[in-house]
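User: quick one - fold this with guanosine-5'-diphosphate bound?
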Amino acid sequence: MIVLSGGTGTPKLLQGLRKMIPDEEITVIVNTAEDIVVSGALVSPDVDTILYLFSGMLDVQKWWGIKDDTFHSNKALKKMGFFEKLMIGDADRATCILRSELMREGKSLTEATSQICRSLGIKARILPMCDEKVDTMISTPQGGMHFQDFWVGKKGVPEVMDVNIQGIEKAKPTREVMAVLNSEENVIIGPSNPITSIGPILALKGMREILTRKKVIAVSPVIGNSPVSGPAGKLMAACGFEVSSSGVARCYGDILDLMIIDERDTTVEADFEIKTVRFDTMMTSVEKSGVLAKRILSEFKS
Ligand code: GDP
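Assistant: Sure. Structure tokens for the protein plus guanosine-5'-diphosphate:
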């Protein structure tokens, strides 16, 4: 099973999917457009969340970082007047340092991720969407800024005029991503931000064409006219999409075979050009994620 993922909604679904199928049968293609160098180490926020999820280390209160991590290095830097762009725990930083060292030796992000997976005993395949550097940039009245500066630095407050994925025109799915897409039939697009998490993956050269030939089931991250969490609504509106599950479906376009929308969703079926199924998509527990994952798997069989 292939799953396209960002760093909060889809990881919740992966928790449940792991109850249904063995990790060895799961491949996660992960957004890397929010990656950023912090204090000399490359942080790949969505990849890290997936790494920690599959290694059982994830802080599932925050959906980033390692549970019970300490923040000595971050605090020590602060004491010396250096404020990091992202809060990074000490153990979390170790992952980022290892990644950066491996890449300095000449390894790609994919190779570095694979080595980290092995060292953490992860059986699932975790594939960064591409090895090229891509950056989600947010246009605001105060000028353009990196997604992390907008979301973490400015707490998502500035008005958003546009979103650009810098470097995407030169980025392509990796050999590993292509190999898995050529050998598997079913793809889940988890409930992730359609603009900043799934958008960059779909924008990779040739990605939409390949996905058109697959059976693709998406779970909407939007219920009614608001996302369950995060800035998806603001960013969708800035990109000209209605903030609704049908707006998300339109954003994904003709690659979709089916969209799972929440049973509370007020959007009517007539607003969709594809088949929809209503289900409880609020993953407030691992058990609920498991039930949702089971339903998705049954849709692939029907
Ligand atoms: P990010 O990388 O941290 O932005 O995380 P993602 O892009 O993976 O996920 C963020 C999206 O997940 C948001 O748009 C939320 O609306 C959605 N989301 C979070 N939790 C849930 C949930 O339990 N159910 C559904 N349907 N969507 C969720």
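One thing worth noting: The chain is about 40% helix and 20% strand.
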